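Hi R.,

As promised, here are both runs. First protein below:
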Amino acid sequence: MSEFSLQNLDQRMKKSLAALKDEFAGLRTGRATTSLLDPIMVDAYGSKMPMNQVATVSVPEARMLSVQVWDKGMTQAVEKAIRESSLGLNPMAEGTIIRVALPELNEERRRELTKVAHQYAEQAKVAVRHIRRDGMDALKKQEKDGDISKDEMHQKSDELQKLTDDIVAEVDKMLANKEADIMQV
């Protein structure tokens, strides 16, 4: 990246936020949601495929997920992928339908999920800081090449820092909301 564009950096940082939102959607709270199984990859046809490409997930009850596998031969692979995920679920296959009962979250499990949420948030912050570093490198190169003045460089680096701080604050806010959601009994 040789050209400095605050708009481009802003878009890249917002993509990190969107990725964090997706990861948080896959973290379990007390309620069943279809997005809970989104991060699970299934060994299908010699490669890893997302759950939504081999089955339909629905929520028939508040604490139950129903997974309708499209190809009967894939039922065991889907069941195994759910069982081996970090979500702590025990699927039960009935033909091509897999039922996944969501047990009550105990205090210890809630704390574990909170730690996972913190890891996801930290990964997002690191990604944002890498994007900021790319922007700073581009600014330094432009100043060294004489494309912008020292004052311009300082002004743009301040704008970039403010953008970074805003995005990191948004990550913290998302984490706080997810934590509250997980810890809610």
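And here is the second one, sequence first, then its structure tokens:
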Amino acid sequence: MEKLLERLIYTSRWIMAPIYLGLSLVLLALGIKFFQEVFHILPNILAIKEVDLILVVLSLIDIALVGGLIVMVMFSGYENFVSRLDINDNDEKLSWLGKVDSASLKNKVAASIVAISSIHLLKIFMDTRNIPNDKIMWYLLIHITFVMSAFAMGYLDKIMKVKE
């Protein structure tokens, strides 16, 4: 009975596979939004103010960072929790594939969240004339919380590696 239960629990990891596949659909949606924004800005490129163009570019960078985060979580999560990806050496294999364990994935996700938050905060600072001061304060506090959390997770992982 115990053997069957353990086998069932181990096999249940495959429930995550459709979730990782679903992330590829989210990636597709981000790609559509990215190009929608690019095609929206191109006809107005000569008339748009520099600040507004920078805000659009920061939004595009934000989308690219989120897309990279999705790819990292999708591939690393699948490899760490479901099954190895069988990719031939002649195919374009990502150099980090198979080398990101769950601890480093957690740190990479935290660093990506800080980068995304930084871009968002930069967009806020570029548009301070339209944003109330109390909201700017909250954006700053949230960003500092992300930074401190990422730092704490990295520091704790460093301590744990020294103990091993």
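A quick note on the second one: The chain has a mean pLDDT of 87. Let me know what you think.

Best,
J.
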